[in-house]
Write a structure and sequence with these properties.
mainly beta, YmcC-like fold, 45% strand, disordered N terminus
């Protein structure tokens, strides 16, 4: 499988913010789940804070903000039989919306900006999988391979998945994406929360409108600690875990 090691392009240092501001989300460690999720990484109540940096095709910074992810302890209402609910919060600045929207690569996709959304994750021992962080300026993550690992992990392992995009997605509507994954290596990576061992997975989403590339690193304690996506317009997006609040 051909892999695109886009992580080598990123040499910009990770900065810190003094202005992270997120709503307090109700959660419970005692709810009885109907599904088979293990809840080892996505345990209810710990808050995962990511820094999100987004660049144009010439590596000019478009936005730099923080995102919070927290499992609530509930089943996700849309697929309660298989997915747990997580709440994603976006710490964007209102006065930056018009500027950022000019870089939207899907001219036919209209959307409102959201400060808080809910979605689902799967963590069942055979698979750890999550819907991408896809609101606001990040909507193109929907057409990249989703964060996903199939166990057991070993260097060289490959798998694939398909995604059908239906109506309502503008230029991407009524299309099929073939996602191919490969385990590249097990790395020691330095993050602001410390030095972590993580599996590096390279993936490509093949689509009629262009290919998307997603390199991500998976840690057994914190899950998807680093995600780098390059879309078919050569824009670059990096999510990196910077804090875990127990």
């Amino acid at each position: 499988m051909k892999t695109n090691l886009i992580f080598t392009l990123l040499f910009i240092a990770l900065g810190c913010s003094e202005n992270k501001s997120f709503e307090s989300i109700p959660c419970s460690t005692s709810d009885i789940s109907e599904n088979n999720n293990l809840r080892q990484i996505f345990k209810p109540c710990p808050q995962f804070i990511y820094q999100a940096k987004y660049w144009d095709e010439n590596y000019n910074l478009i936005s730099d903000e923080y995102i919070s992810i927290m499992a609530t302890g509930k089943d996700w209402e849309h697929q309660p039989e298989s997915q747990d609910e997580i709440v994603i919060q976006y710490d964007f600045k209102e006065n930056q919306i018009d500027k950022i929207d000019r870089f939207n690569i899907n001219s036919q996709l209209t959307h409102s900006w959201e400060e808080k959304t809910t979605t689902g994750i799967i963590e069942n021992g055979n698979l750890t999988w999550m819907h991408p962080i896809r609101q606001n300026q990040y909507n193109f993550t929907e057409i990249a391979p989703f964060p996903s690992v199939n166990f057991p992990l070993e260097t060289g392992k490959e798998w694939e998945s398909n995604l059908n995009i239906h109506e309502g997605w503008g230029d991407w509507s009524n299309s099929e994406i073939n996602n191919q994954y490969k385990v590249i290596s097990k790395d020691s990576i330095q993050l602001s929360i410390g030095n972590l061992e993580a599996w590096h997975i390279g993936s490509i989403g093949y689509a009629k409108f262009g290919n998307s590339y997603h390199d991500f690193w998976y840690n057994v304690d914190y899950g998807f600690v680093k995600m780098i996506i390059k879309n078919y317009k050569n824009q670059l997006l990096k999510f990196e875990l910077v804090e875990v609040i127990e």
